[in-house]
Amino acid sequence: MKRVTISDVAKEAGVSTATVSRVLNNKQGEIKISELTFVKVQEAADRLGYAADPFAASLRSKRSGLFGVVMRDVRDLFLLKLFLALDDEAKKYDVQLLMGNADYSLAAAEQQVQMMRRRWFDATFVLGDIPGDGGLLNAENDGQVQVALACGKRKDVPSITIDEKEGVRLGMQHLVELGHRKIACVGDGNALGVRERMQEFVSLVDEFDLVFRDDFLRDCDNCRMSGAEQARLLMEMEDGPTAIFCLTDTLAFGAIDALHRLGLNVPGDVSVVGFDDVLEAVEIFPALTTVRQPVEEMAKMAFEEAIALLEGKSIEKFEAVHLVPDLVVRETTAAVNAKD
After folding, report:
1. Under a CB-based contact definition with an 8 Å cutoff, are residues 145 and 309 in contact?
2. Structure pTM?
3. Residue 151 and residue 134: Cα distance in Å, rounded?
4. How is residue 46 annotated by DSSP?
5. Residue 3 phi/psi, 5° resolution?
6. Neighbours of 269 (CB within 10 A)
7. Is the pLDDT of residue 139 over 60?
């Protein structure tokens, strides 16, 4: 079927193509268009089934209304929550988000970013760092607008993350105030943000006067099964920890599963703290005490930065944003058992 053009609408309405263009784009100009002409053009367009050419519109405005999202891993519960927050924010700007899953592959992430650049995407959000992604996250590359979220500390691109150290301090202080001195830490050191959390945990051991052993610090993949395995190994130790600080909620969920299977009570026998505050944190039993990342604020600031870049703000004027997390105390933490 032949595409209906502005010329077809002009002929049907008995007016010039310029008038049709002004009506359909809602631009009055110096010479006002009468209400009768306005209605006549709209009715002609409806009768003929006219639809604007989005590609032509993007050529004129240099905007497509499409933003891309490249996610390190769509199975990551926190990154998924962050994506949903971005999607909510996109609706406020009348923007459509299309998402690609890198699945921890730098090659896949690079391919997705290149595709988004070639396909008229206005901007790209990168969620979660991938080892070696320095070349990928380059906002000056062909003028492409990129904003990194939850990618650790970066200087190569406008970035939004949280104060990881403050998040760890909040979780540790909570456990110490409950009387815990034997605290284990479980996390995936391959992720920049989590690696920073692990380093902060170690730095706080002396400050909080903890009883610490090297094997209380556990580095593992960020999946529920790994969280369960690490919790089991920790509980098999002689004089093991009374609390486990899991540096993602996903690991905490696995740890709680394993502790239940071992016949241990959470938090009566072992307290567990997570990090992220994903949707499931309040749904599991017992509900998870965790460090909350402010995803709504992160999404809001990501769009503000992207729009500012699209409107010509210099990249050099942007500084990395580190938002302040907070601790959500629920049911997986309690005062240390007297016998411990």
Report:
1. yes
2. 0.79
3. 11
4. H
5. -75, 135
6. 16
7. no
